[in-house]
């Protein structure tokens, strides 16, 4: 009787270990397929005339990698769409690491475009970058890179309230009013 129960316990433990090993093998295979897809997405050549957007069926990690490759190649519109796709797929879990990375990269993309354009055309892009950094800081206030980039964007295009407050600090120049028949030193 004892021998039978010992064999049953040993057999159960062996089955549990085999199931655990099978689950780990499946996770390893999935990770290897993901790494292969990420490598292909990052190394694929980008045709700037017709950039290939990642499919909505692709994993979020693969879409983020493809968006990063598009941004690095200079296909800004396609990268914007790919990053937006990552944010849409995150849905209510907007605090995931991938959505935070997408928000940060969207802000950087807008800020880089604004710096490249310069002038008045850059202001909407700077405002868009500031909004992306603020969205990220609402979710992850400890992100110092986003804080730094937001500060840089604020220096490029200060907020309206800040600009008005700075104008209030400047003393108002007194105007001389000239009335007919009166000299500047005369008192009424």
From TrEMBL:
Record's keyword annotation contains Signal: yes
Keyword tags: Signal
Record's signal peptide: 1-23
Residue ranges of the TM segments: none
Superkingdom of origin: Bacteria
Alphabetical list of Gene3D superfamilies matching this protein: Tetratricopeptide repeat domain (1.25.40.10)
Keyword Glycoprotein: no
InterPro entries linked: TPR-like_helical_dom_sf
Protein name, per record: MxaK protein
Biological source species: Aquariibacter lacus
